[in-house]
Automatic annotation (TrEMBL):
Parts of the chain that traverse the membrane: 25-46, 58-78, 98-117, 129-147
Database matches in InterPro entries: Marvel, MARVEL-CKLF_proteins
Membrane-topology annotation of the record: Multi-pass membrane protein
Organism: Pagothenia borchgrevinki (Bald rockcod)
UniProt keyword list: Membrane, Transmembrane, Transmembrane helix
Main localization, broad class: membrane
Keyword Transmembrane attached: yes
Protein name: MARVEL domain-containing protein
PANTHER family in the cross-refs: CKLF-LIKE MARVEL TRANSMEMBRANE DOMAIN-CONTAINING PROTEIN 6 (PTHR22776:SF25), MARVEL-CONTAINING POTENTIAL LIPID RAFT-ASSOCIATED PROTEIN (PTHR22776)
């Protein structure tokens, strides 16, 4: 007996739900973002272990920043490393990624400095501050890597200029023969 119907579609190996590198997230950037998530989580957990505080406003600000950094960076990693980013309706992912990472790095730096200056000196607080500064370094490293590889996203299309003559020299040559 012969089979009348055969399969008409071939499996697409690129249709996996998790893909790194992708158009919005390369391998190095993915590793930096995973480190940001982990260090933010550790800073948040260590801050939560603090049993008493002399001036709690610095502790609460650090708690807010570390929790926000953990949750939103995790969300960003999930969106950028899966096809979900196409369903959200945002078309400027590089700009969003750059601005979010820079702002979160700045907030983490401020929160870590404030918490380092105004805490009770317990081991948990000092360790949380250390992880806050490590997370800050990862956010700023990500910003630096972004600028190095893609340029500033708000300037001339975002890509670093690597041409010698530029497009204007080519256009001038083409228009000169008219």
């Amino acid at each position: 007996m012969t089979e009348v119907y055969s399969t008409t579609t071939a499996p697409n190996p690129k249709s996996s739900c998790f893909s790194v590198p992708s158009e919005n997230l390369d391998t190095v950037c993915f590793a930096l973002k995973v480190l940001q998530v982990l260090l933010s989580l550790v800073a948040f957990v260590l801050e939560e272990v603090v049993s008493s505080c002399l001036s709690c406003s610095a502790l609460y600000f650090f708690e807010f920043v570390s929790c926000t950094a953990f949750l939103f960076t995790l969300l960003l990693v999930i969106l950028l490393s899966t096809p979900l980013h196409g369903r959200v309706g945002i078309s400027c992912w590089p700009k969003l990624d750059f601005v979010y990472t820079a702002v979160m790095g700045l907030l983490f730096l401020i929160a870590s400095i404030v918490f380092a200056a105004d805490n009770g000196g317990s081991k948990e607080e000092m360790t949380a501050v250390a992880f806050g500064f490590l997370a800050t370094m990862m956010f700023f490293s990500d910003v630096g890597y972004f600028i190095k590889t893609r340029g500033l996203p708000f300037m001339s299309g975002g890509a670093p200029d690597t041409s010698n003559g530029g497009a204007s020299a080519e256009v001038e040559k083409l228009n000169a023969s008219e």
